[in-house]
């Protein structure tokens, strides 16, 4: 059983209609609230929906001249971001009942650009692995992935055209893959993280979900002022494919879809190769990523651990204890190794490089088994590189899987352009296809 | 007129006495609270003093076996850190009346190590330049410096042996210099910044104030688990002096004291030289630092600007508007330039390098004129290098000024060892000298 709304306009289209006077922000919000009412009982994507505040904000926007990039566009915010007057539970027992007193910097920037916050979406506990109650819109018996579970499900189902997520290991690209939508994790540190509950300061990255690449670009443009719309005239001659050191973790459904995808690239197919010293280092990258994440999480969540270890899930408690047990010298060495590896890649990989690799090990697993594996994401999160997942693959049963476009540090525009080209050539947004 | 308490034990000494059963944490706290009562009317270092909570926490510590590095040691926390149940005003009109619901990660780590929080200390508005009401303990007509004004004054006056500060441009080293104490800004990102109000994510660094180098080391050891006690057997053969590209901003009193200091180094004196490509880049560093800080502050404080521009000081409002006006492409170029410069320095400066440079342009200016200039700090903040200010210099009128020990990225231990050697050879903590 699925829960998808068809034919909702995307973010660019919504903004265009509002600017043209063919739709008001208030109507746009009301339309989405209708869909939310319809689908939420099955999906459970939201921590809280703020109907009256959203309509009030939309009326205010309707009374103002069009200015920002997302003037009147409804958005959803993952519940590790602070949003004034809304819950800020971070998926945790400890913070149940907390209300934020301010907006995270990125949320304030989205509002400045005209975005209307509909509410807060479910997140795994502090963006780690403890599953939420959210279901996958394509198959309610499956997980939407984590940690940005609610944001991905809300966008995939058509409840909102845009949502905020964060990625520390695979928390944007993986749920985008499982939910058949576009997920974009920009270059590390491109978007302000103030007011977002921290998990691992070397890795935490704010990113977005949308149902098309230009829509994802639009939200990041609104937050950064950059021009990131994909170059529609681009026609890449070669699309380098990189199966990566974790290919042995690909599940049969992915292996089969991926091979078909490589064949489909035809003359554009090429094999991506890193310099040997990078290749060597990448084999160690997943373990390095996991150690840094655990060590930094133990520092970032020191208060939560002290205050109520019994309110934490067993998995998170174990992670924090694992992190605390890593010696100070090993932490220093690990972070030095990460910095060196980032330098090495920045020095040896051409600035305009882009390559394709799977977004996830396979399709969304069953709900009861957790939020899926971030194996195909850890390396790129460690390197801080821009990644965009596009919904191009499917299983025999029609479940979505993503192709991950990764690029050199700072090549966010190049990644989005290739992602958009792939969508135009091979796909369409999954949730519109069904 | 000054306001200094003499002969209070340092942090290591306090911890030693408590561990030896010669002092209880409760007594240690009560002694400090007496001093606070005495001096606070003149110094105005505190936003809030939490007497009963501190005594309660001390009694709890007294009932437990000695474990952490700062078991029972009173500490003060700059009011941009969240401390549960205490004010979190960030020196701002907008946040007047706010109480934090959790501890910043670093505060939780300090408590885990046995530290007792006495209260929150005055900070300039969001750690920018709007002065606080705090006075300099050595001369009440002067500023303690900013932004960590209250923490520096509280340590200098003997109200606490240890305090937390942060530095984005010169907010630890400058007030340490003006207040005649030890200020230590570790390597960028060594200490968790979660729960600290952000100003500029590429630069914000948590650090400490103390009245001796080993005491400063102790607190950073408690937070990181590293072994950072200065090597007391070290005897540097050469102490490279670097007057830096901003030497022309040195005031006459500094020029004269600095020349005498250089002479005093005698055979150990040498001139520090960077590679020519670094030297070239450092000339641009202060401007680059200022642009990055403004651009990132405009993102970090987007909510505060949107919510109540009229509650912000004129200077901060102007800074945020200056930051917003910097184009997205220039922001990217600037941060790329910063990263390249950090790489360059990491590649060309030996890992064990240490050099000496002034901490501030001169002594503490008069209270009415602001919090002093961060000129001698911007470069090192931009590079993210560890810096320690030691109170070795004075004006003809006996006002303190600091010598800044700077080291290669990650050489926190080397910086502290040289700082300690300098103190042993040339100085003693200023506030004990008077």
From TrEMBL, chains A, B:
Q: Transmembrane residues, as ranges?
A: none
Query: Where does the record place the Amidase domain?
Result: 31-416
GO MF annotations, alphabetized: catalytic activity
Q: Where is this region: Disordered?
A: 129-152
Quote the protein name from its UniProt record: Amidase domain-containing protein
